[in-house]
């Protein structure tokens, strides 16, 4: 329609009208480009907010899982130190052979940890990390996921040799009782170590302890495992302030 009108103006040599038509065309093209850019920016912003909402959920899950593991790992370390003290000094945990057996066994518990990084990895593989406009937040996310993925993950994923040794030396009646009465996992994201009564006599418990100490590898593997858990606990605690900062900075905007 515009082209037909321009041709008519040219035939009539209506140069002013031709100029006006040209301006209309230029303005129309400019407005069209701006509208397309605006729509693209809105789509990018919507995707960014969706990703931020998912990352926020991932980070909250990590924070909760870290807090729960801190509680369990401290108990594992305490049990391990009690068992080591008995092996080195002969002093029973709270004067009880059963509580000392329980300490040896519970010291073998583990609760591995990995980051909830599905959203970050999806953005990274899709080349969409740039949708997060906050450079500081992008850097923090990169540091957090890269460090856990290639730097400290081995601390949190280790399966100690001590676990195999002590469980192989523990009578089934004791192990079954511990799993039934001294350990609880009400949900996949929860795990608790509990105090419990003994299924065997003190004399029988002492015999179990004697069997533990006959193994030449058990004590040194226990020392290694307790030390590793201590390091893992210190490292994972450092993630708490980082996670809380990222949660504050990356909070998605409420829907308009």
Describe the structure in your own words:
α7 packs across α10 (218-237). The model has no long low-confidence stretch (mean pLDDT 85). The chain is mainly α. β1 (183-184) and β2 (192-193) form a beta hairpin. It has one domain. 73% of the residues lie in helices and 2% in strands. The chain has a two-stranded antiparallel sheet with strand order 1-2. It has helices spanning 2-11, 15-89, 97-106, 118-125, 135-150, 153-157, 161-169, 172-182, 202-214, 218-237, 239-249; strands spanning 183-184, 192-193.
Give a quick rundown of the structure.
The protein has 256 residues and is mainly alpha-helical.
Number of strands: 2
Largest sheet: 2 strands, antiparallel
Question: What structural class do you assign from the helix and strand content?
Answer: mainly alpha
Widest sheet: strand order?
A: 1-2
Query: What is Rg?
Result: 32 Å
Q: Which runs of at least 5 residues are low in confidence (pLDDT < 50)?
A: none
